[in-house]
Amino acid sequence: MSANEPEQVPVGPPTGPIDAAAAGTADRDTRFFGQPWALAHVFGVEMWERFSFYGMQGILLIYLYYSVAEGGLGMDRAVAAGIVGAYGGSVYLSTILGAWIADRILGSERVLFYSAIVIVAGHIALALLPGFVGVTVGLILVALGSGGLKANATSVVGTLYRQDDPRRDAGFSLFYLGINLGALLGPLLTGLLQSTLGFHWGFGLAALGMTLGLVQYSFGRKSLPDAARHVPNPLPRNRYPLFAGIAVAGVAVIALLVADGTIRPENLSLIVIYVTIAATIAYFVVILSSRHIDATERSRVWAFVPLFITSVAFWSLYQQQFTVVTIYADVRLDRDLFGWEMPVSWVQSINPIFIIVLSGVFAWLWTKLGSRQPSTPVKFGLGVMIMGAAFLLFLPFAGGGPSSTPLIALSGILLVFTIAELLISPVGLSVTTKLAPEHFHTQMVALFFLSVALGTAISGLLAEYYDPENEVPYFTTLGLIAIGVGIMLLVFVKPVLRLMRGVR
User: Domain extents for the chain?
Assistant: First the structure.
């Protein structure tokens, strides 16, 4: 933004209730498991969005590479894995657009609502449109809608608490529980329909779930605080045509690159990686160079850089649940349950079961420890090290034949995934809202999701190198790299905490 646009300066803090009376009311409201009742509405729409998202994603990869006779599209398996990684990265990359619209035009709550409508349309396209047309239209709409919903749902949760409210981390952990209730049920039910009636029935159930979430949220959204609708950095009306033209030009450029073969299924992951890196650098430069942030806020943004890098390393391994682990479950896992072969997608529900069980434990633990709990950099360092250890746990089963890995063994590995996740994902969402400068609140949340975007796209690229016939180098290399990243962060905990200026 230029220096001659004072009308863009935001009004009021987007990180919590706008006034003291609202803050006092929020502090006294404990109707939703000790949290503000308004959390229930965001909890609900996020739960149904995750139901549809993970329900669809649980069957997406096998839909792409299963043969036409099996109801799939018959793509090469490595290319299909790259597409899934690129799609997942695009979901989080599109949080930039959702955050920008929230901060400049509509506010977080309205973007959340409209994004839910776009997601419904995307899942309907996947369910009803045949072949690659349905995949293309559906994935674009779901990616755009999910990106807008994710960044802004997190931001809306942040408006329910004062920055120093001790319930804040516990509230985000409860919010995370809603995410994983949806993530548990989605793959179970869509996978069951896919295995009995066909892929498009599974996609149709995902559409129905998101529709339920939209209806539920439309009734409860009015009870959210005014801070959730606040536009912190309004775009002047005379700039609307300029940005509309930029949007149209961007779509045209993408269409031309697809038409001339520059963007292909084979290189989607790499393109998303490049775009995400460029967006990340641009975001950090814009925020750090802004005249609207003070020295303390600038220091906190610098502190976010090592957390961002650690988050990328974590997600590049964790998100392989939807690529490598799916392939592993299809070709290596013993899925026999008392004479009945469970659907491949059911493996995606193992992690959410552990999340549901353990998220309450972690929320209780952080609340119980209070100021004595480990700092955020320590949690991040331990989280990525544990994630690396989870990859090393695949090694005892490397080189086995079909159905050679017991289900209980993979479940144990995914338990380790879960412990690592709980040290990074809800903690990352919470610390991002605390480190965010007042004028870049939602966009800092988008920066956290950019780390997920980059990690997810990298996971798709890495999955192309996974060879079920030669697994030891793959799991060993990635596991040790992640452990090394965690050790480096632990070594530099004190300097990072100094940069965080009182935020832990």
Answer: 10-23+31-500
